[in-house]
C-alpha cells in the first residue's frame, strides 16, 4: 500500500492538522515509512507467543477483596463547597 500526496492531504484534514502543500510529499513519505514498518510487523511469526502487558515479567501485588464503607465521609466532604446531610449539594439543573 502506498500513500500519495492527495491521501496525505486527506489524512491531515481528517486529523485537523494544517499542512502546507509543499510539505505534503514529505508527509506522504513518512506515512509510507510507517506503513512499511507495519508490514514488517505483520511478517513476524507470533504463533505460540503469549501476549504480555509489559516487557518484564512482574507479579501484581494482590490484596484481599474486602468491602468497606471507607469511613472517610467527613474528610471527603471537607473539600466540598456545599455539603448537606452527609452528601454533596449541587445546584438544581433540571426544572
Automatic annotation (TrEMBL):
SUPFAM superfamilies: Glu-tRNAGln amidotransferase C subunit
GO terms assigned for molecular function: ATP binding; glutaminyl-tRNA synthase (glutamine-hydrolyzing) activity
Signal peptide extent: none
Pfam families for this protein: GatC
Documented EC number(s): 6.3.5.-
GO BP, one annotated term: glutaminyl-tRNAGln biosynthesis via transamidation
The protein, known as: Aspartyl/glutamyl-tRNA(Asn/Gln) amidotransferase subunit C
Organism, scientific name: Profundibacterium mesophilum KAUST100406-0324
Amino acid at each position: 500500500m502506498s500513500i500519495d500526496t492527495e491521501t496525505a492531504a486527506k489524512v491531515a484534514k481528517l486529523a485537523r492538522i494544517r499542512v502546507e502543500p509543499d510539505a505534503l510529499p514529505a508527509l506522504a513519505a513518512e506515512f509510507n515509512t510507517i506503513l512499511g514498518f507495519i508490514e514488517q510487523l505483520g511478517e513476524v511469526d507470533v504463533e505460540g507467543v503469549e501476549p504480555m502487558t509489559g516487557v518484564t515479567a512482574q507479579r501484581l501485588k494482590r490484596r484481599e477483596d474486602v468491602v468497606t464503607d471507607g469511613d472517610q465521609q467527613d474528610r471527603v466532604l471537607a473539600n466540598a463547597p456545599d455539603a448537606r446531610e452527609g452528601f454533596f449539594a449541587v445546584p438544581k439543573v433540571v426544572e
